[in-house]
Each structure stands twice: as structure tokens, then as C-alpha cells.
Amino acid sequence: MELPGKGGIYVSQSSQFRAPVNLDEEVTATVEVLEISDKKPMVTLKTTVTNAAGKTVVRGEAVMFVPWLKG
């Protein structure tokens, strides 16, 4: 599944910034699907950003409207 896909809308994002990141520092963003709604074409995502040492620097959750999903 590729998100947001055609017609997808980023509805909301909440983020907790847990540690500073320098401008030249490499980070890795990972997104995990937590829930695909049975009633609406909505997807809830867990977002995690880690630094090169593996420390979580940002943690969050997002909600996307994905019209091509059957709700």
C-alpha cells in the first residue's frame, strides 16, 4: 500500500519531539499502520524517527483519509 495515494488527504498529525537533531544528522523515519477503519476510508499510522545511534527522536501518530479504501 502506498500512502497517501491518489486523492489521499493527511487529516492530522501529532508529534512528540523527544531529543534534538542537528542539521547535518542522518535520521530514519518509520511508519507503521496501526488501524484501517472498517467504517470509513481512514488509516491510523504510528510514526517514529530515530537517529544513527537508534535513539527515538520523534514519536507520533497520523490519520489519513484514503478514498480508494473500502470503508
From TrEMBL:
Gene Ontology CC annotations of this record: mitochondrion
Q: Which InterPro entries match?
A: HotDog_dom_sf, UPF0336/Enoyl-CoA_hydratase
Superkingdom of the organism of origin: Eukaryota
Question: Among the record's GO biological process terms, what is one?
Answer: fatty acid biosynthetic process
| One GO MF term attached to the UniProt entry | (3R)-hydroxyacyl-[acyl-carrier-protein] dehydratase activity
The record ties this protein, via PANTHER family, to:
HYDROXYACYL-THIOESTER DEHYDRATASE TYPE 2, MITOCHONDRIAL (PTHR43437:SF3), HYDROXYACYL-THIOESTER DEHYDRATASE TYPE 2, MITOCHONDRIAL-RELATED (PTHR43437)
> What name does the UniProt record give this protein?
Uncharacterized protein
Organism whose genome encodes this protein: Cyprideis torosa
Question: What is the taxonomic lineage of the source species?
Answer: Eukaryota, Metazoa, Ecdysozoa, Arthropoda, Crustacea
